[in-house]
Amino acid sequence: MKVGGTVIDRAREVRPLDRFHSIKVKLGILVVASVSVAGCFTAIGVSAGIQARYVVSVAVILSLIVTQILAHGMTSPLRSMADAVSRIARGDYSRRITTATSRDEVGQLAAAFNLMAADLEAVDRQRKELIANVSHELRTPISALRAVLENVVDGVTDPDPATMRLALEQAERLGRLVNILLDLSRIDAGATELDREDVALEEFLGTVAREATVSMLTRDNDGGRPRTVVDVTPPDLTVRADRERLHQVAANLLDNAVRHSPPHGKVTLRARRLEEGGVRVEVCDEGPGIPPGERVRVFDRFDRGSRQAADGGTGLGLAIARWVVDLHGGRISVAENGAPGCVIRVDLP
């Protein structure tokens, strides 16, 4: 059983009957042991000339002690199970029952209970991660839409067709994101399908960069915002991918790069064709970079390395990017960079 994240080893209790595989056998042994102890003591007491009433009283007491010792080990998993059930009812799914030394029907029940508790814990964790993922993914289009509307209300920009079209694009993207994020429960089950198409990277990355520019309009960056540069070679470079999923990757990586770049810095979205086939997309910033010790685990969910912790990041953007890249059969990593800053590299087949 777990207490405070640790397992209490029930094997330290007196449980001499755990080697038997049937509770019926255990009950039979319990009866035989109790009767044998009482009979042996009675025979010894009578032969020693002790009065019968004392012999019987002590024999009964000894029989009860033996029964208590043997029965305590038999019912220990049931008591642990009752405690675990009460904690699960209060939302604590971390409790487990030690079953290594119990081989009877109670041990089998405890093993099934542990499996059920583990499944419930996994479902609860996925539910919490789903809520966090949804909140993280909806933040970008909501911020962009709010920036457009605030600029129109404040008179910074005119409500011309181009501005309204940009707001409409963000509202439509928000609706698409809701539909995409609602199927996150299928992600871990591996049941997500990709709607692949040929994506023109120059136009695609340009759109991502423009959306990022809109989302930065209300950002106070000490007098200047990083500028975004799109560099695609050759200009007609395409990749076969799911456009919406790929947009998740590019938007998350660009958002991270912009937030960690200095004022008046530069963020580069670069795409190249690989000699061995496939496409490499890199997002480069001029920020403090990622320490070598954090470059592997920075893609784990809820990992908040020094960069994430510095600006209150949730630790989900890079995890979502890795999931999408894995779906495409690609690879995402933090590339070595001789210059200051960080380079996130995505290789797609």
Q: What would you say this structure looks like, in words?
A:
- Strands 4-6-7-9-8 form a five-stranded mixed beta sheet. Strands 1-2 form a two-stranded antiparallel sheet.
- It has helices at 23-47, 52-89, 105-153, 161-181, 201-215, 243-260, 306-310, 317-327, and strands spanning 2-3, 6-7, 196-200, 227-233, 238-242, 266-273, 279-285, 331-335, 342-348.
- 52% of the residues lie in helices and 14% in strands.
- Strand 6 and strand 7 (279-285) form a beta hairpin.
- The model is unreliable at 1-12, 218-222 and 307-314 (pLDDT under 50).
- With 349 residues, it is of the alpha+beta class.
Largest sheet: spatial strand order = 4-6-7-9-8
SS class: alpha+beta
Mean pLDDT: 76
Q: How does the overall form come out from the CA principal axes?
A: elongated
What is the rounded distance between the termini?
47 Å
Into which percent range does the helicity of residues fall?
40-55%
How is this structure best summarized?
It contains 8 helices and 9 strands.
Q: Top keywords for this entry?
A:
349 residues; five-stranded mixed β-sheet; 8 helices; 52% helix; elongated; disordered N terminus
Could you outline the blueprint of secondary structure elements for this entry?
Blueprint: E1 2-3, E2 6-7, H1 23-47, H2 52-89, H3 105-153, H4 161-181, E3 196-200, H5 201-215, E4 227-233, E5 238-242, H6 243-260, E6 266-273, E7 279-285, H7 306-310, H8 317-327, E8 331-335, E9 342-348
Parallel strand pairs: 4-6
Antiparallel strand pairs: 1-2, 3-5, 6-7, 7-9, 8-9
